[in-house]
């Protein structure tokens, strides 16, 4: 293919041809580099390689950057079990569920991977727990759900559930992402232990 003194225009076909020509001269025993490879074509090739290298560095830097985060939640001076703790940051969201002692351990979803801990940074925190309505105990609520399920087996599906839905236990200043005043900071190289004492 003849090579002119003009640098190749950045069109799809010409760009691919230049890149192919530049790569071919790097093979042992190949001919001297075409003139286009010393100008715009070479710059295109180098730019492409730098871009690939930078992408690889970014991906490697993003792997394994989470740090362990644990914590505890209490409500009215008692451990709060079964609450969902959500930390929302600019790069990721971390979630934990409290156990019977109010303890939780965070996990994060980063680039499609489920990772332990959280990425270092500042977070908005929400804590939520849904409970049976009207002061009903968990056992009573479960029994009512079971009875409703048995009735549906006989009478068919009822779009209007005879069992009222669960209600949020905590105020919206804690449980609503748009209204919460809770904040947390996760730091690299430190022991991250979060404590939330809700009145």
Summarize the SSE layout with pairings.
Elements: H1 12-24, H2 40-62, E1 69-75, E2 78-79, E3 84-88, E4 93-97, E5 103-105, E6 107-110, E7 113-116, E8 121-128, E9 130-131, H3 138-155, E10 167-168, H4 172-175, E11 182-186, E12 192-198
Parallel strand pairs: 1-12
Antiparallel strand pairs: 1-2, 1-5, 3-4, 3-8, 4-6, 6-7, 8-11, 9-10
Helix pairs in contact: 1-2
Give your account of this protein's structure.
The chain is of the alpha+beta class and 199 residues long. The chain has three domains: 51 residues, no CATH class; 84 residues, Sandwich (Immunoglobulin-like), CATH 2.60.40.1120; 39 residues, no CATH class. It has four helices and twelve strands; from the N terminus they run ααβββββββββαβαββ. The chain has a six-stranded antiparallel β-sheet with strand order 7-6-4-3-8-11. Strands 1, 2, 5 and 12 form a four-stranded mixed β-sheet that branches. A two-stranded antiparallel sheet has the order 9-10. Helix 1 crosses helix 2. About 13% of the residues have low confidence.
Helix and strand composition category = alpha+beta
Residue share in helix: 25-40%
Second rung of CATH, namely the architecture of the largest domain:
Sandwich
| Largest sheet entry | 6 strands, antiparallel
Overall 3D shape: elongated
Number of helices: 4
Which sequence of SSEs, written as H and E, runs from N to C? HHEEEEEEEEEHEHEE
Q: What is the highest CATH level, the class of the largest domain?
A: Mainly Beta
**How many β-strand stretches?**
12
Mean pLDDT: 77
Spatial ordering of strands, largest sheet: 7-6-4-3-8-11
The fold-level CATH name of the largest domain is Immunoglobulin-like
Query: Multimeric state of these chains?
Result: single chain
Uncertain segments of ≥5 residues (pLDDT<50)? 33-37, 41-47, 50-63
CATH superfamily of the largest domain: Carboxypeptidase-like, regulatory domain
User: Beta-sheet strand percentage?
Assistant: 25-35%
Q: In angstroms, what separates the terminal alpha carbons?
A: 78 Å
Radius of gyration, in Å, reads 30 Å
Total number of domains:
3
């Amino acid at each position: 293919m003849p090579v002119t003194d003009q640098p190749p225009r950045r069109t799809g076909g010409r760009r691919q041809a230049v890149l192919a020509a530049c790569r071919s001269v790097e093979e042992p025993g190949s001919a001297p580099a075409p003139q286009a490879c010393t100008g715009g074509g070479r710059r295109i090739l180098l730019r492409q390689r730098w871009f690939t290298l930078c992408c690889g560095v970014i991906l490697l830097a993003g792997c394994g950057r989470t740090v362990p985060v644990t914590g505890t939640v209490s409500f009215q001076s008692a451990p709060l079990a079964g609450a969902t703790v959500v930390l929302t940051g600019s790069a990721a969201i971390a979630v934990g569920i409290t156990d019977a002692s109010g303890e939780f351990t965070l996990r994060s979803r980063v680039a499609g991977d489920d990772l332990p801990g959280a990425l270092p940074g500042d977070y908005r925190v929400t804590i939520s727990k849904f409970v049976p309505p009207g002061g009903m105990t968990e056992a009573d609520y479960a029994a009512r759900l079971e009875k409703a399920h048995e009735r549906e087996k006989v009478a068919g599906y009822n779009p209007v559930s005879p069992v009222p839905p669960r209600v949020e236990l905590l105020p919206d200043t804690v449980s609503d992402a748009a209204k919460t005043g809770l904040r947390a900071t996760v730091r690299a190289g430190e022991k991250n232990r979060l404590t939330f004492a809700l009145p």
